[in-house]
Amino acid sequence: MAAPAPTRPDAAAGTFDDLRVLDLSGTVASGHVVQVLADHGASVVVVEPPGGAPVRAAGSADVLLRGTERVDADPLGDGAGLVRALVERADVVIDHLRPADARTLGLRSGRPGPRIELHLSELGEGAGEPTGSLDDDVVLARLGGLDVFGAMAPRPGPAYVSVPFGSFSAAQLGLQGIVAALLDRERTGLGQEVATSLLHGVLAHDIWNVNLRTITERYPDAFRPAPHVQDGVPNSALVYRLLVGLSADGDWLQFSQTSRHLFEAFLRVLDLGGLIDHPDWEGLPIVEDRDRRVQLWDRMLRGVRATTTAGWQQVFDEHPDVWAEPFRRGAEVLDHPQLRHDGGVRVDARGRERLGPLLALRVPGEDPGPAEPLATAPTEALADPLAHWPARPDAPGDAGGAAPPDAAAVPGEAASAAPGGGAAPGASATPDGDAAPPGAGAPPLAGITVVDLGMFFAGPMASALLADLGARVVKVEPPAGDPLRGLASFPELGAIKASQGKESIAVDLSRPEGRAVVLDLVDRADVVIQSFRAGAAARLGLDADALLARNPSLVYVNAAGYGSDGPCGRRPAYAPTIAAAAGIAWELVGSTLPGEPGALDLDGLKATSVRLVTAANTSFAQCDGLAALTNATAALVGLRARARDGRGRVVDTSMLHIAAHVNGAAVLGGRSGTAGPDLLGPSPLRRLYPSADGWVLLAAEPDRAARLATLLDLPDGEADGLDPDLVAKRLAAHPTEHWARLLDEPGLRAVPVVEGPVEAVVLDDLGPAAGLLADVDHPMLGPHPRLAPLVAFGRSATVAAAGCEAGQHTDRLLAELGHDDAARARLRADGVVA
Q: Which CATH class for the 1-109 domain?
């Protein structure tokens, strides 16, 4: 069952066309996994039980299951024998089964073999008994996320979240686990179990809130947590830098002015440039005087409202450093000019417009030819599934798989574990040379070197995820450091997470000598990740063509905000800007916004602006995190493609395209605002209700309506059309814990809505109990908890290392590149390195 060699090793082999993938989950999360694998050549079979796979109820099957085949079978009933036979023939199996159910199908046996098994869960098995479900809303309820999102609701209390952030992000982590395990299998001949969860996917997004809580608890007299806006007064510079304003003709606009020079350009077009160096406004955009903060917000909002949307477009054309996106909704996203320019909108075999593949791989210098129509999802089940996947000559005789002859020589047959829940820590060296504890096999990316040219979060966090899998990552940043390091009020806070496990070299790329240093690093690298705006890499001589000409086996990831060229390629792209462009913000909160925004007074405009900010830029559900996860996937998929034919790859991604995929059900369904005008939920069965002492999330499948009516003692016939007001009256009669105990059956749950913030739940409650945290020692912050690696392996180790400071390893890296003491001193004296 080992992967066969390409039949034409001199050709660009399909990245996954040697793989058989069996999806026993059929959920939105597994759908995002199999879409990527099928788009790049894998043979994917999805097992659908009676009533259909869960992804069909979500309305996403037509998109996520394209290019797959279907088998109608009950894996835990009369179809168990067929499914077990398919498991024996698969290279990769995906499930979210309870452990006992998985074992009946030959999964999670603990025996060595070539098969890779991805297990998905809601919270990770360390957080409680597995439920056998994968529900985004349940995860956010238990994590405190629905409570935090209450800031976007038009009423007190939590808000329902209709975008599947956890499912998409868990899928990216799952893909990383699968591909890393495939790379390991090519060295060892062994597969292994891989585990991650929707919870881990959500936690990956956070840029600094977990570390901010550590700081505010450690230094309570110096730092206090505070919302961005409190009692009508902005507390954060991001209120101004990422302003949400209303145009003269009633369009909401999300601006994108995070960097200092971008913010100053924005002030000038608002005729507020005189404030920049004025002594009364020292510290702009945040000043000590509270009244001035309110005054600045008022003046900026009035300035935006003085111009129509068309007028603002003219401003953007004349001033490239000023940029905003309108809040698009539903199918409007498909008309985004950058998405169409990049091939992000493609036609399928039935002539329908669909989102193109999440990742675009190409071999430099090769003409890929015209794009073929996208595959469609199967309409009929396979008549003979076993004929579709004939038994291989070397197929194992049992579901566990036969160990290869040299299995005994492979170290560390550790038991499978959920992320953070017991897998041995990394068996490789940390960036500062400390040996990680033994006990598991080598990390799956041991021996891989990554050069990180990214700035801010989406690129740098991607390479930090690769460091967790054992890659050596060298971060290249300017002498002053990545701008992310100074974005928050506490020094280094912004970059602590994104620099985990890395070595940093501070180099001035505007100097030829600095670029020469980076080129020497690239010559020794396997992967480069860059996130410059379009054209910047080419101006520096660090574009894909230049670097692959030097290092033909390089995997080069273009982790752009918008794209490497095109109408928006040079525009500044930040998480909330993309959330507006991709329709995410409107899907979350648009159904509650005033129908005639032009009638809003200034106070109403501010209140609505804050709700849109919550929808577009909440830390655990934002586009920087979504992009970071996908960029890490992109690097690994590129490495797998290279492993098949030895040639380097360019992998193109964009935050815009990624966000559109996350919001795909709304984009392709032409819908928006499915949580309803009060943000309580899409239906009486999937809804937030007050209890006697808090809130519960009712999570019931349609076929459980009659059972719910019985348990709630509702009138006869109520199951045919539940009245949410009557359900609310029943649920308000007893405390949350009563309902959590009573309504706890397969397909029917009442989930307590935990009070946020999320970082408090992680650090004080769920994290320690579920093994989500690892203790590290940052050179500036000192000892502190970080999130443990987000993917766990049954055999391979992972690495949990601390972040680094800017330029912390400059001297050592220069010495490694052959610069002697005198040469290093000269580079420092000339300001080339720091």
A: alpha beta
